[in-house]
Design the sequence.
């Protein structure tokens, strides 16, 4: 019997997965290699029965990935150690740790893009979109509820009668022949058809046009531009709203920052002495802070024990002793006023010491006074 030249394969349909597994075993035993199986759902173990090798796609991924690695490292070596060496943060010209992120990214980029393109153009044979099995009753059956096998005419052992007999012996429900669609084959691949190309160009044009319009025009039209053109004053801007023309506003008079206590007794040290109360007790911690700050900020003029014996060798007039009756009888608040505002030639120490530190220094001065003027019961 003459075989038609354009025969692609002979197909057989079975009803159950067991039958198709059995058929695959027989086809294997007969020695056919160019055949394929189509099932409506994955049948486990079929790939083992068909002796299918693992996909080779992984090797393509490896090659593309390594290409990315080498390209990245080469260009960074060439541009940063050869062509235009730059010292960056004292690193060597070929600073591998710093080059890893770029290398990694290019590796992953090329591996993924390369793998997808290989799949599309090498395995799926793009731009060819047709396959003889497409659009056949066989395909319609196997994508519904039948299990099909198709032995290709290209197999070296292929003989029409032998294949037909094998399928009959296996109890195939339907045996059919698939022919190449000559018309389809002679046609140019669909993606080169002018219609498709025009469709592609139009789509690209519309999408880029829409993006351009959205990002460069629409966002600057009402109501989308409300955020951009809202009425507001920035610190350095001129204001049309306020009479003085300043965009930056001062706090309302009397505003107190959270956690800060303004000093309201300026020029009235006696009133401060009357009203202010030391918020701390002379405990170990407070006295330690007070001693530290006193030794840093006060002792150069007042001496380590506040006796007025300055260490400045006459560069600054010696202050009076702080053990005088006058200062001993002052309230803590009165001394606070001196430290905060200064007194005559003694400058203010409000910049160097926080209010809390000033109170701690006062407690330390009290301790010094007590040490020099001990009471009788202190000695008991
Ligand atoms: C630059 C040197 C200098 C430093 C530092 C200094 N004082 Fe004075 N202090 C003086 C002088 C000078 C006087 C006397 C001022 C005057 O003529 O009324 C004085 C006066 C005083 C008085 C009032 C004494 C009185 O009898 O009227 C007190 C209290 C005082 N100082 C506390 C301190 C404390 C606490 C510190 C540390 C925070 C300090 N001083 C740091 C130079 C200094």
Sequence:
């Amino acid at each position: 019997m003459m075989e038609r030249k354009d025969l692609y394969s002979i197909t057989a349909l079975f009803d159950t997965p067991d039958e198709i597994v059995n058929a695959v075993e027989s086809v294997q035993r007969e020695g056919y290699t160019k055949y394929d199986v189509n099932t409506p759902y994955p049948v486990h173990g079929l790939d083992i029965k068909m002796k299918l090798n693992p996909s080779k796609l992984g090797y393509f991924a490896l090659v593309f990935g390594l290409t990315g690695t080498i390209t990245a490292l080469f260009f960074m070596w060439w541009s940063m150690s050869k062509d235009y060496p730059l010292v960056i943060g004292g690193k060597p010209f070929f600073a591998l740790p710093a080059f890893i992120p770029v290398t990694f990214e290019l590796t992953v980029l090329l591996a993924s893009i390369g793998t997808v393109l290989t799949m599309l153009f090498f395995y799926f044979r793009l731009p060819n979109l047709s396959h003889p099995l497409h659009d056949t009753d066989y395909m319609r059956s196997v994508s519904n509820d039948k299990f099909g096998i198709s032995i290709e005419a290209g197999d070296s052992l292929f003989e029409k009668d032998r294949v037909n007999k094998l399928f009959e012996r296996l109890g195939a429900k339907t045996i059919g022949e698939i022919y190449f669609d000559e018309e389809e084959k002679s046609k140019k691949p669909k993606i080169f058809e002018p219609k498709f190309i025009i469709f592609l160009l139009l789509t690209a044009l519309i999408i880029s046009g829409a993006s351009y319009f959205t990002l460069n025009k629409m966002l600057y039209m009402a109501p989308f531009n409300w955020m951009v053109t809202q009425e507001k004053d920035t610190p350095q801007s001129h204001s049309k709203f306020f009479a003085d023309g300043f965009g930056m506003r001062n706090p309302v008079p009397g505003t107190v920052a959270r956690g800060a206590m303004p000093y309201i007794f300026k020029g009235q040290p006696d009133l401060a002495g009357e009203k202010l109360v030391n918020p701390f007790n002379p405990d170990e911690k407070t006295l330690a802070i007070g001693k530290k700050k006193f030794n840093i900020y006060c002792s150069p003029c007042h001496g380590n024990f506040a006796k007025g014996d300055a260490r400045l060798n006459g560069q600054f007039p010696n202050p009076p002793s702080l053990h005088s009756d006058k200062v001993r009888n002052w309230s803590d608040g009165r001394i606070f006023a001196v430290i905060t505002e200064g007194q005559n030639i003694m400058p203010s120490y409000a910049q160097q010491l926080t209010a809390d530190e000033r109170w701690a220094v006062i407690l330390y001065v009290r301790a010094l006074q007590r040490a020099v003027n001990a009471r009788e019961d202190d000695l008991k």
The CA atoms of residues 12 and 20 lie 10 Å apart. The radius of gyration is 47 Å. Residues 297-298, 300-302, 316-317, 319-320, 322, 324, 326-327, 335, 338-339, 343-346, 349, 361, 365 surround heme C (CB under 6 Å).
